From TrEMBL:
Protein name per Swiss-Prot or TrEMBL: Glutathione S-transferase
Cited SUPFAM superfamilies: ADP-ribosylation (SSF56399)
Gene3D superfamilies (alphabetical): Protein of unknown function DUF952 (3.20.170.20)
Residues passing through the membrane, by range: none
Species in which this protein is naturally found: Brevundimonas naejangsanensis
Keyword Transferase: yes
Pfam families, A to Z: DUF952
Tagged with keyword Kinase: no
Keyword line: Transferase
A GO MF term: transferase activity
Domain of life: Bacteria
Length: 119
């Protein structure tokens, strides 16, 4: 599977991102914890994920994750429509992230991403 991307994204609340920065790791949302892994989306999956799970929400962060830094904790598994999605089995180390930007998602699912990184 050498054609899989080397980076992906996690959408989370600004409060969760601040806590992750303080702790050096992100353990996952309630949905992640219930499923047993942290859900990520590749770039081409991001818009559909935002529309499906975050429509109408603001005060979010879009975190870019370096998948090569995750080692064996990363597993690509079929999900929505049979597409392979990156899942992290274990915490997401902040050291494996490449940046974070403020994000809001309109009621119709359109993403609005700030250009500058924020915490």
């Amino acid at each position: 599977m050498t054609d899989l991307p080397h980076f992906a994204f996690k959408i989370l609340s600004r409060a969760d991102w601040r806590a992750a920065l303080a702790e050096g790791r992100y353990d996952g949302s309630a949905v992640d914890l219930a499923d047993g892994y942290i859900h990520l989306s590749a770039a081409d999956q991001l818009e559909a994920t935002a529309a499906k799970h975050y429509a109408g929400q603001s005060d979010l962060m879009l975190v870019e994750v370096d998948l090569t830094a995750l080692g064996d904790a990363l597993i690509w598994e079929p999900s929505r429509g049979g597409a392979l999605f990156p899942h992290i089995y274990g915490p997401l180390p902040v050291a494996a992230t490449r940046g974070a930007r403020a994000l809001s998602v309109s009621a119709d699912g359109r993403m609005v991403i700030e250009e500058t990184a924020r915490a």
